[in-house]
Predict the structure.
Amino acid sequence: MNNNPGIIKRFVSSLWSVLSFTRSLIVNLVFFILLFAFIGVFSSGEEQFQVPEKTALVLNIVGDVVEQKREVDPMDAFLSEAMEQKDDKPEVLLSDIIDVIGKAKKDDRVAILVLQLQGMNKAGLTKLQDIAAAIEDFKESGKQVIALGDQFSQDQYYLASTANNIWLNPQGFMLLDGYGRYQMYFKSALEKLSINQHIFRVGTFKSAVEPFIRDDMSDAAKEANKLWLADLWMQYKEDVAKRRGFAIENFDENIDVLVTKFSAAESSFAKYALNNNWVDHLKSRQEMRAQLIDLVGKNKKGNSYSHIGYQDYIAATSSVLNETTEISNHASDKVAIIVAKGTILDGTQKPGTIGGDSTANLLRKARNNDDVKAVVLRVDSPGGSAYASEIIRQEVELLKKAGKPVVASMGTYAASGGYWISAPANKIFAAPSTITGSIGIFGMMMTFEDSLSKMGVYTDGVGTTDIAGFGPTQALTPGMANLFQLSINRGYQEFIQLVASNRNMTLEQVDAIAQGRVWSGKKAKELGLVDELGNLTDAVVAAAELAKLDHYDTLLIEKEQSSRNKIMQQLLGKSSSLVSLFTTSPEHVAIDLASNAVNNKPLSQFLSMMKTEVEQMNQFNDPQGRYTLCVACGN
């Protein structure tokens, strides 16, 4: 064996040279892209993206539709784009989609709206209804809306149903499977691993902890879930049936009926969709392209139809949007909008997650701003930490004491902790499809003494009290278990007392509709848990009325970026635009329908589900271990 140290030394030296070269290459690449951006920005006053005359606006949404994006470091985002690394979980702001559709309605250059939705992932019925309303308003201009695709998921089809024409590839796929809630259960797995789970809860229907104490869904949870799922499904069917002009019986919920129809359509999903009046025409990509050319003409290259993508349209019209914003902000009286989106956790959290301290700080800013006369708290959350929820609630109360009315506007979810922070508002708005309620509380811990004993590991010692040294490597004593359950009971009483005092109900009345049970927004209004059915705009108008404002503007209060991030975002944003121009073909954006197809690999789906379960458990950080969370709601 050759142990020549010279060979090893040369190998290490060569490896280091490769690493140094790679690092220098990346740094230089970033530098030159930034340099090109500066040259482009300062040498031309023209927009990098321009809207062609008589063109199609392509609403090519890619990612989850959200109320608030999670915080991403600007440099990380830029490098990912420069290296053509796709974001695993891309997000699109609901407000951006609605603003773009509204602006395109008034833009004479935009002749038609094309819905290309195969890249759109999760949205939720509430957000879909808001986008659909914007599309219906767009149609009031007399402009056509065309939906096209190789396939349509259920969420994608809801938006497609607003179109004047729906085109599906002859080899395409479409199936409406309704709403369901299915999750994994771990009781037997935990027993095999000798992990002891200790559950403390109040609420017959508080099913958040069931995956750890059962191997199936309880009858109580099934009963509650069926009710609100059926309500949402009926709303979906009624909306789509009305737009498509057929009866709600046209939704094939019985598998035998579905198979019969599918067989009659020669076992083709595309023909089945056409026969069922789900779509208007079956067209190949070339036929779609040719039809669109007839409507708006060819692009500059002459190889496709004239169009501009959704993101490019934002870039092309951003200066106009900014000018409009500056003009509208002249009024001194403001209705502040604060978004509370995501799981509620203790402490300071990044946007996309609700932090007890960070969200309370935003509410405090509104209270200390003399121009702010009212506040709309936009809630899109399944809940989380009971303690963090209470910290936020206290700030809502302080706003009211300062004479500034608060209106809660519920998005897709406002359940458990999401309802806790909404309850003290002067008025609560929800969409008919909002998932809310779930008024209950639980605590959970796991101890590993039996698992460790199988490996020959034990915990022993002495303490001055019965509770000294308590931890996950020791068995939970009956006394400690009783202590925790009493704390959970107290938390539940505080929750229903909070609801009763703010909703003018007795404790008995609240308890009857609480117990962790989930309701749709439509049913919640009937039960008195919300005041009105409406969207964010309705909530803003109501807040202004409560504050007796005749002239006002809205003011979005959100976490301020650091000076470093602001500068980086401005510089890198322009560089990203150039990267997009140099590396992306416009035709690829407009007609490559298959590139954003849903990943249906079973193993990937399973691993993703497991990862989500673990991540959710790891982020729990309530200081008292008390949670008010609706797991069945999804997030």
Summary: Confidence is low (pLDDT under 50) at residues 320-328, 571-599. The radius of gyration is 28 Å. Residues 5-43 form the longest helix (39 residues).
